[in-house]
Each structure stands twice: as C-alpha cells, then as structure tokens.
Design a protein that fits this description.
This protein has four helices and nine strands; from the N terminus they run αββββββββαβαα. It has helices at about 1-15, 85-90, 115-130, 155-159, and strands at about 20-30, 35, 40-45, 45-50, 55, 60, 70, 75, 95-105. It is elongated, with a radius of gyration of 34 Å.
Length: about 160
C-alpha cells in the first residue's frame, strides 16, 4: 500500500504543470513599436512571455503619433505569492496568468511644428541669452611682461 502511494505521488509530480505568464500590449492604431525596459520587443499587437512581476518601463512609438511613456505594474495573482506558489508549480495542470495593456495613441498635430513659430521662439531665446551686444574691449592687452615673468616667457621676446 505504501509503495502504491509513493508511485502515485511520483506520478503526480512527474505530471506537474507549469505556470505560463503572458503580457499582451495593444495599441490603437496597431503596428506601433513596443519597448520594454529600453529593449525593442516588437510591434503591437504583441504577446510575449515574462518571468518577473513588478513595474516595467514601457514605451510605444509610431510615426505621426505622440510617443507613450508608461510604467505599468504587473501584479502577481494570489496563487503566485510565496508560499502558495510552490503548490501552484506542483499543480498537475498548467496555470496561465495573462496580463493585457491597451493604449490609444494621439496623432501629432501639425500646429506644433509651425516653422515660423519655431524660428520666432529661437530669436526670443537668443535675445534672453545675450547680456549685451558685442563691443570691443576698452583696454588693450599689455605688451610689457608682468612682474615675476622672465623675458623668455613674454610674447615680445619669443618673436
């Protein structure tokens, strides 16, 4: 009888499933580049497996649309919290944990790229940076060596 229980336990452990974790990122419009933690991972709609729960750095880019920068948090389900996760890993059926992130991208307006407004802003900023108009110095550099300086180091003696 004991032998039968051991073999049933070993069979159950041999059939132990695993946990599949997937993260799906979608965007409207589709086809945007997705970066997770500063690595390009593909285009939307995108589904990929992940190992760790926590906060991700997410960036979604597409030409003609504003870039989305987000820091979504992927929470662990109750059955993935220690010590329950050990039992979940030994469960004879596969467990699936799916997370879905969806974003709507806004088109870039043409008004934000008005070249005349950009040039006018540049002129205003340049004026702010100038403390005064260029004026020649009111004093001329001395051709006489300063005290403590030998003749060989003076500009007139070198020539």
């Amino acid at each position: 009888m004991l032998r039968w229980k051991k073999s049933c336990l070993l069979a159950l452990l041999g059939c132990a499933g695993c946990v599949e974790r997937t993260l799906t990122v979608t965007s409207n419009p589709p086809g945007a580049l997705v970066y997770l933690n500063d690595q390009e991972v593909g285009r939307t709609p995108l589904t990929r497996n992940f190992l760790w729960y926590g906060t991700y750095d997410l960036q979604i880019r597409k030409d003609g649309y504003k870039t989305i920068d987000a820091r979504p948090r992927v929470w662990a389900p109750l059955w993935q919290i220690v010590p329950i996760d050990l039992v979940a890993e030994l469960f004879p059926l596969p467990l699936v944990d799916r997370h879905r992130l969806s974003y709507t991208m806004k088109p870039v307006s043409e008004a934000s790229f008005d070249p005349h407004a950009l040039a006018a802003r540049g002129i205003r900023e340049r004026k702010k940076l100038r403390s005064s108009e260029y004026r020649p110095p009111t004093t001329l550099p001395s051709s006489q060596p300063t005290e403590g300086m030998s003749n060989s180091a003076s500009p007139t003696a070198a020539g």
